[in-house]
Amino acid sequence: MSAPPSGTARDYPLARLTTIRTGGPADYFARPGDVDQLEALLRWAEEERLVIGLIGSGSNLLVADAGFRGLVLKLDGELVAIKHVGEGLVSGGGARLPKVAATAAGVGLAGIEFGVNIPGTVGGAVRMNANAYGGELACVLEWVEVTGAGGTERRPPDQLGFAYRQSNLGPAEVVSRARFALHPADPAAVKALLGDLRDRRRAAQPSGIKTFGSTFKNPDVAATEGRTAGQLLEAAGCKGLMVGGARFSEKHANFVENTGAASTADVLALMELGVARVRDAFGVELEYEVALLGGERSA
Ligand SMILES: Cc1cc2nc3c(=O)[nH]c(=O)nc-3n(C[C@H](O)[C@H](O)[C@H](O)COP(=O)(O)OP(=O)(O)OC[C@H]3O[C@@H](n4cnc5c(N)ncnc54)[C@H](O)[C@@H]3O)c2cc1C
Fold this sequence. Notes:
By secondary structure, this protein is of the alpha+beta class. It has helices spanning 35-47, 97-106, 122-128, 137-140, 187-204, 229-235, 264-282, and strands at 9-13, 25-30, 51-54, 61-63, 68-73, 82-84, 88-92, 109-110, 131-132, 135-136, 141-148, 151-155, 174-181, 183-184, 210-214, 242-243, 246-248, 255-258, 291-293.
């Protein structure tokens, strides 16, 4: 095996890079600081036939207890920078969305306020087609740059295959940069809107817990009579239900929290219990919203 690019770590713990704080180590781990470093790492992984895993803020990610057999990348340096360019912002794929929203407000640009409540990165949000309070990523994205072992190419949003909580990005395709097309607005008004959105979120969802946010997608079937995944879980008696150290939140049943020493196996077993209860009560099959890294369902 050829030596990995410099700065690549072995057996690197991943739990602390996720908001649920569970899971094992990556065989290889690196933080590329620019596109050249990122491309070099992807080329090395391709030569060595290593699978690629990507971590943004780890806010929608469940890492297998056994860890990840491959190379995990977390963007850094220039790839987390945010720049004001014309009537828009250009950010690295690793920039955090709340910071993008706050930066836009600071320079008097509106359109990305919904990002204040999504605790993930631009790349994670593009892959997951994240949205909140009616704000749509596709509406403000002008382009994204996608980097793979073969190089970097620019794609407009209509080539990203956006659907509910999904895009068409391949597993080793990394969102390295994005441009948001925004519009001028009074900075004080944009900041006030950010404050309102934060308050609304605080009232609706638990805060200060170890969680990856919504666990299941909202089902789109007549049998639910418009009920969300959280409402179905609550009606099926899942609020407060525990397996090991994992619990469905008392405040919002679609949130799983790590109460202290949960493992990924606890979280997955609790999720399967929720799926079974909703299936038995309503005949509806809940689908995972959380992304899995390593081990898939047998974590
Ligand atoms: C408290 C809380 C509230 C939340 N509220 C919302 C909400 O309102 N709306 C919403 O949509 N989501 C919400 N989420 C979920 C989560 O924040 C989003 O899905 C977010 O977009 C994930 O971004 P991330 O950087 O954390 O990605 P991660 O969790 O690190 O990864 C998620 C997926 O994206 C991939 N990925 C990460 N970085 C890149 C990259 N640079 N290029 C390509 N792929 C990449 C990963 O491999 C993985 O498949 C919430 C989560 C929490 C914890």
